[in-house]
């Protein structure tokens, strides 16, 4: 909509030509049309936001104070669900502890490994395209397929990895079947799919100005010092991004943990047997699995909603760290 | 994004010192050693990333007896295993369901997310930053947080339990991650293009379709790919809504119970695993560039 060629008239001219709308009137009409246009463009998401975000969130909060199993209607029972989850459900705390373990070990190792692979790939001269594709490929494997594959590769009976370790005279852990090794096994799986981090680290490493390396070299800096004083400061925003998104992904950690448990335990649903997540011995419990278990296996919707709210609170707290770095993450043109 | 260029960071340039001085020879020897070290590491890493595929493949063609042993190498190559998996009851249905879910989901997501992303990137209005924050909050929300009321809504009120519709329909209302990614890209289109189109008398919708859409093709391709992969890989959604109906299962959901449900050995399970992996990997090779661009678009605005 352009006003440039329209009837642009001073405030006084309206009187001489009563048929022409005043500038103010035009402006107001324009503003109203712009608001309608904005609303129209946003409408799919505005509906989605209301129906798939606000409504279920309010509803989850409400259910957390009620007793409800899907039949009849929810009845208010105060803080009972909260007390139950926080005091009488040891697996809740176990799930939180597992999540902390995954954040400390899995996220850290993934970020370090992603940076390492990124550094490596920017230095490869011969066959760079081949190596890049090979390093990236496992990231594309669907999580369920990758987990089933690893459940086979790491199975203590016939798995090729343990066979290999045995031939080398190394200890053969039980991996997904051993409570002490199930999280390391999941970590190994997560490091195999490093492709996403490799790509963003590679992009930022290529953006480091070459002059800085040359200057550092002239000053007599060795490879370690160049990494410490040139590379690291330049990629630190990406490290921060990788850590925060890694923590958010860990809060949502579900598919790999539940599939690994199911395949390793030999109970894979379907046959009427119900699989309780966390196998072996609760070592792979995470909060999302608890929502599933409480809600869809035990039909205790109230307790499931308590866990969902805790999950929501933690996720939003982590997200707010990301948002505080507004400048980069939400680049704005004004 | 220049992925193809490999930078020379620290290496001494061979040929730059043909004088044959001791220093130059030492520098060249260092460069050669550096080359060897880097490429040995790269080969070691490549083995780590490739060997799982290799072992899965080798096991997938073993016969039933050998698949119970610790052998690495198949004594006979049973390509028929793939046929057996293909003929397993349900496998074709899972394929069809997965394609419907991923195809319809991707199409709906792109169509509904583009206008929203455009408005967030190019319109000025009050509450725009708030809207953007809401998009990000939605993007970071674990699906489990809202699943109880959503399940009750779809299964009890809409009667759509046992189908994939509760997963497909919401995608007609914009997907937060796609909106965010498209918006990041649309921000980079100079507003002169949009203004020029407006002066030429294009309405907003026409501007979006005729001017912005052709320029945003790489971002749209990336968003479409991501969404396709998301649907293809989704496990939680089908588990919640379709687990009680075999006819509605997807590949990702069916694969997990493949071994137990069909009383099969590891060889058939690994063949099925490769059959689930293959389409996304083939798709990646056709659309590598768009995909890598998309990954960087999400993160590198640091």
From TrEMBL, chain A:
Transmembrane stretches, start-end: 38-58, 100-122, 134-154, 185-206, 227-248, 301-323
As for membrane topology, the entry says: Multi-pass membrane protein
GO term, biological process aspect, one: transmembrane transport
Annotated region Disordered: the residues are 1-27
Instruction: Establish whether keyword Transmembrane helix is in the entry.
Output: yes
Q: Look up the record and report any one GO term of the cellular component aspect.
A: plasma membrane
Looking at the record, the residues that make up the ABC transmembrane type-1 domain are 96-322
Q: Where is the signal peptide?
A: none
Which InterPro entries does the protein's record reference?
ABC_transporter_permease, MetI-like, MetI-like_sf
Family stated for the protein in its record: Belongs to the binding-protein-dependent transport system permease family.
Q: What is this protein called?
A: Sugar ABC transporter permease
Automatic annotation (TrEMBL), chain B:
| Compartments, record wording | Cell membrane
Q: How does it sit in the membrane?
A: Multi-pass membrane protein
Membrane-spanning regions, if any? 32-58, 99-121, 130-152, 164-186, 207-230, 266-287
The UniProt record lists the ABC transmembrane type-1 domain at 95-287
Q: What is its main location?
A: membrane
Q: What are the entry keywords?
A: Cell membrane, Membrane, Transmembrane, Transmembrane helix, Transport
Q: Name one GO cellular component term.
A: plasma membrane
- Cite a single GO BP annotation: transmembrane transport
Classification via InterPro entries: MetI-like (IPR000515), MetI-like_sf (IPR035906)
Region of interest (Disordered), ranges: 1-20
Key word Nucleotidyltransferase present: no
* Keyword match Transport: yes
Identify the domain of life.
Bacteria
What family is this protein classified in? Belongs to the binding-protein-dependent transport system permease family.
Q: Any idea what this protein is called?
A: Sugar ABC transporter permease
Source organism of this protein record: Kitasatospora aureofaciens (Streptomyces aureofaciens)
Lineage per the UniProt record: Bacteria, Bacillati, Actinomycetota, Actinomycetes, Kitasatosporales
């Amino acid at each position: 909509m352009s006003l440039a060629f329209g009837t642009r008239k001073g405030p006084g001219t309206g009187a001489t030509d009563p048929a022409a709308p005043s500038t103010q009137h035009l402006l107001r009409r324009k503003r109203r049309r712009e608001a309608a246009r904005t609303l129209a463009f946003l409408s799919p998401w505005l509906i989605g936001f209301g129906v798939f975000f606000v409504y279920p969130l309010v509803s989850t909060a409400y259910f957390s104070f009620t007793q409800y199993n899907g039949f009849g209607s929810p009845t208010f029972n105060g803080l009972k669900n909260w007390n139950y989850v926080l005091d009488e459900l040891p697996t809740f705390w176990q799930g939180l502890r597992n999540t902390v373990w995954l954040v400390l070990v899995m996220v850290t190792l993934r970020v370090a490994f992603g940076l390492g692979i990124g550094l490596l790939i920017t230095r490869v001269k011969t066959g760079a395209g081949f190596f890049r594709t090979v390093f990236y490929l496992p990231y594309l494997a669907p999580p369920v397929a990758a987990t089933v594959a690893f459940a086979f590769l790491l199975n203590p009976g016939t798995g090729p990895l343990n066979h290999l370790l045995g031939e080398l005279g190394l200890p053969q852990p039980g991996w997904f079947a051993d409570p002490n090794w199930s999280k390391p096994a999941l970590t190994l799986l997560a490091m195999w799919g490093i492709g996403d981090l490799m790509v963003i680290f590679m992009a930022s490493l290529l953006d480091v100005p070459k002059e800085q390396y040359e200057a550092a070299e002239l000053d007599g800096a060795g490879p370690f010092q160049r990494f410490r004083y040139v590379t690291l400061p330049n990629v630190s925003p990406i490290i921060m991004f990788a850590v925060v998104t890694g923590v958010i992904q860990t809060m949502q950690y579900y598919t790999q943990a539940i599939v690994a448990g199911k395949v390793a335990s030999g109970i894979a649903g379907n046959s009427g047997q119900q699989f309780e997540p966390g196998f072996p011995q609760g070592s792979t419990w995470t909060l999302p699995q608890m929502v599933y278990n409480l809600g869809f296996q035990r039909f205790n919707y109230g307790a499931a909603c308590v866990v969902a709210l805790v999950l929501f609170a933690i996720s939003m707290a982590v997200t707010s760290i990301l948002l505080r770095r507004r400048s980069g993450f939400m680049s704005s043109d004004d | 994004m220049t992925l193809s260029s490999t930078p020379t960071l620290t290496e001494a340039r061979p040929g730059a010192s043909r004088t044959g001085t001791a220093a130059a020879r030492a520098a060249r020897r260092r460069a050669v050693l550096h080359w060897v070290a880097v490429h040995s590491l790269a080969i070691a890493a490549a083995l780590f990333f490739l060997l799982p595929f290799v072992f899965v493949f080798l096991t997938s063609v073993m016969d039933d007896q050998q698949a119970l042993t610790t052998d690495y190498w198949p004594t006979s190559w049973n390509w028929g295993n793939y046929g057996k998996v293909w003929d397993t009851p349900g496998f074709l249905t899972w394929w069809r369901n997965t394609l419907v879910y991923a195809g319809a989901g991707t199409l709906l997501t792109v169509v509904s997310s583009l206008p929203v992303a455009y408005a967030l990137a190019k319109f000025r209005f009050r509450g725009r930053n708030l809207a953007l924050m809401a998009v990000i909050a939605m993007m970071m929300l674990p699906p489990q947080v809202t699943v109880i009321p959503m399940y009750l809504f779809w299964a009890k009120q809409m009667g759509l339990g046992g189908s994939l519709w509760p997963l497909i329909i919401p995608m007609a209302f914009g997907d937060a991650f796609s909106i965010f990614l498209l918006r990041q890209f649309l921000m980079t289109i100079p507003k002169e293009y949009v203004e020029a189109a407006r002066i030429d008398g294009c309405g907003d919708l026409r501007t979006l379709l005729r001017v912005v859409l052709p320029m945003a093709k790489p971002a749209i391709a990336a968003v479409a790919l991501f969404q396709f992969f998301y649907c293809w890989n989704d496990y939680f959604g089908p588990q919640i809504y379709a687990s009680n109906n075999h006819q509605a299962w997807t590949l990702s959901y069916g694969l997990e119970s493949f071994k137990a449900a069909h009383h099969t050995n590891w060889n058939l399970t690994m063949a099925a695993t490769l059959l689930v992996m293959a389409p996304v990997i083939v798709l990646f090779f056709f659309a590598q560039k768009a995909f890598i661009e998309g990954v960087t678009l999400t993160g590198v605005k640091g």
